[in-house]
Amino acid sequence: MFKSVLELSQQREILSGSRENLVQSIKSGADLRIYTEFRHNEHIDTTSGNNELIKEVSEFRATYLIEDKWCAGIMTLRQPASLPGAFGPRASMSFFMYNMDGTQAIARPFLDGGGPEKQNAEVGCTESLFHDMGRYDLDTTAPSTNFVYDFYSYKFYTNECFSEVYAADEKGNAVSGSLKALTDAASDGAEIKVAISGMCDALCEREPIKHELMIQTGPMYFYTETNYMLTESHPFVRVQPNIPMRYGSGNWDFGWVIARTDGHVAGLWYDPQTLKTSRTFENKAMRWFVKK
């Protein structure tokens, strides 16, 4: 069950809950959804006479925990919509990112084979409610924007439906929990989530900042003689970790990983500018969660 752990005002002041509650919930592997309120002709179409209040709830399938004190979520499966009843004019991914302080961002790799856009189409809002915090690569096929839109309300909901059952270091040495409990649950059809430490170290310009990326997984395979399990993740966005999280030129990409309980992580990454792929092979510490 989802419950509100943090509520912010339009000015992003805390009304209820706490940032600490949100951080601890995300650290425990919780799913994240964020509720906001806005008016159609202030946020969707400023030329419209429709002043209707819209209540939005969005899921953030990829969550980040930074230095055990900051969290952010990214929408990983969204195509841009042209409300109230169509998709946007260009096919693209719409990687919205929210920080726990209410600051927002979007990265948009276009998938239609067309050229770049002159500006990021997501910022056509009532000017007094939109606060630009930096735009990048607007003359490319993968623009990004960091901003704040003054939603009337922000509510951070988490569902603590996952339990941590196993953790291992980057060499696959058990740190806590039981590998058998994890593999048994996977064999019984349970949904699995993995938290990977240092997943975005390669994007750091200086000394990597401590972080975990948490993402649901898909197919799972247990090798019964060599005694490790591997799984393919759902797609997610890699972003240079920071407080707060921001998109910038060259500091993000997207893709999938194959994660193994012996610490091996194989990545398949799409360059957002060219959609060409690259591969990585690393060893990472991981925590494994089973849906209750």
Structure write-up:
With 292 residues, the chain is mainly beta. The protein folds into two domains: 3-157, no CATH class; 162-291, no CATH class. It has helices spanning 19-27, 40-43, 179-187; strands spanning 3-8, 14-17, 31-39, 53-59, 62-66, 70-74, 81-82, 86-87, 95-99, 104-107, 130-136, 144-149, 154-159, 162-168, 174-177, 192-197, 211-223, 228-233, 236-239, 252-260, 264-270, 277-283, 286-291. The strands form three sheets. The chain has a 16-stranded antiparallel sheet that branches. The protein starts with a strand and ends with a strand. The model has no long low-confidence stretch (mean pLDDT 95).
- CA(first)-CA(last) distance: 11 Å
What structural category arises from helix and sheet content? mainly beta
Described by the principal axes of the CA atoms, the overall outline is: globular
Count of extended strands: 23
Unreliable residue stretches = none
How many domain units? 2
Largest sheet, in brief, is: 16 strands, antiparallel
Task: Please state the CA-atom Rg, rounded to the nearest Å.
Answer: 19 Å
Tally of DSSP helical segments: 3
Oligomeric status: single chain
Mean pLDDT over the residues: 95
Order of helices and strands: EEHEHEEEEEEEEEEEEHEEEEEEEE
Helix content range: under 10%
Which band does the percent of strand residues land in? Answer: over 45%
